[in-house]
């Protein structure tokens, strides 16, 4: 709500740069009211669907409502791919930590090499840094190289989860060096998004699902530091180029004042100003809805411009900026953020806002439900890597957010199949026994759900007394962390979670 308050107080709004600032006239005030209503509708639909889906799954888990067949069907990530009822032979995909570590090394080396090539082909470090201010035009035809940080991120996530699963040191020197490479490559992509979506959020999630999650104070501190880094990055890389260094001079002279002003003014939530402009033009009788055209442009993202010279330059952001903020778009094709709300409204009006909000709420709930159903290594990695893209989808447009999400999913699946092998496991098939006693503790319900039995002390790591059994005791084939029948789960689960 900081941005609406700032606009109302300053009586100025700008969907682009300072040069696009306009007086907050009665017409724009009416458009701002419509924008607030659309935002309320969008997030209401999002949270209603999200909380309903999560609450429904929580009730199922509390009742012990997943039988052996359901758990087997959910074990796509490293679980039983095939069960012979007579011979009791199980086929499982077992993740190899040596291969996952090799993927980390190869991905980091390739990403670093591509970054060096990109910098040298651009004329050196100074020319490359200056050109990033207009990265849409500067990296045209080479933007895929700037995404080389994504395989590094995914390889690190897999390696940490797999090593954590097997009881090895998760953050060994290979992963730590790869993180440095990841930060350099993501920071060189030209935007704050790669740093936030590709580094900060996924590794925060990775930490939170581990054995020692951060407390709220630590999360708030890390989030504050990340916000400061993102704001400084924006000023140094982009804004100082557009205003001939004036913003950088102000930051140097009064860093605390500049950063506090940006935080309290809501300038980082500029999509609200875009919604004001969109509702202003939508009130004109000749406004034409896009009817899905901006979403239909998403597949074009995957085709290199060298193969399709006339492919669209973008989706919703490009359409809006070039049409309604042409001065800002200019010859360098600088885009502003339309947001998921604006893109949905510009395509299908209010019904589109409701539908897209509900759809994103459903997608968000799938990750939580997957964790509640105790997915395996692939499911955990998908939750860590893809969840942050929801922020990109909500703030930006489908052309960028959806396409990078799909690309990440493809790499996740490919890396999983490279680093895992299909092995045959024999032995009795043990199905989980639901807790009959409705007054049983949360720990007992959790242990019964995963097939460990109540009070068995099988060393699963859940609840009190869980370590009383032998560490290498055989685990049930279903509901046990999937990829490693005799190991620990890839994600640490506690009753509090």
TrEMBL record:
<feature type="transmembrane region" description="Helical">
    <location>
        <begin position="30"/>
        <end position="52"/>
    </location>
</feature>
<feature type="compositionally biased region" description="Gly residues">
    <location>
        <begin position="454"/>
        <end position="468"/>
    </location>
</feature>
<keyword id="KW-1133">Transmembrane helix</keyword>
<feature type="transmembrane region" description="Helical">
    <location>
        <begin position="348"/>
        <end position="368"/>
    </location>
</feature>
<feature type="transmembrane region" description="Helical">
    <location>
        <begin position="218"/>
        <end position="237"/>
    </location>
</feature>
<feature type="transmembrane region" description="Helical">
    <location>
        <begin position="375"/>
        <end position="394"/>
    </location>
</feature>
<feature type="transmembrane region" description="Helical">
    <location>
        <begin position="400"/>
        <end position="419"/>
    </location>
</feature>
<feature type="transmembrane region" description="Helical">
    <location>
        <begin position="141"/>
        <end position="161"/>
    </location>
</feature>
<feature type="transmembrane region" description="Helical">
    <location>
        <begin position="99"/>
        <end position="120"/>
    </location>
</feature>
<keyword id="KW-0812">Transmembrane</keyword>
<feature type="region of interest" description="Disordered">
    <location>
        <begin position="454"/>
        <end position="497"/>
    </location>
</feature>
<keyword id="KW-0472">Membrane</keyword>
<protein>
    <recommendedName>
        <fullName>Oligosaccharide repeat unit polymerase</fullName>
    </recommendedName>
</protein>
<feature type="transmembrane region" description="Helical">
    <location>
        <begin position="173"/>
        <end position="206"/>
    </location>
</feature>
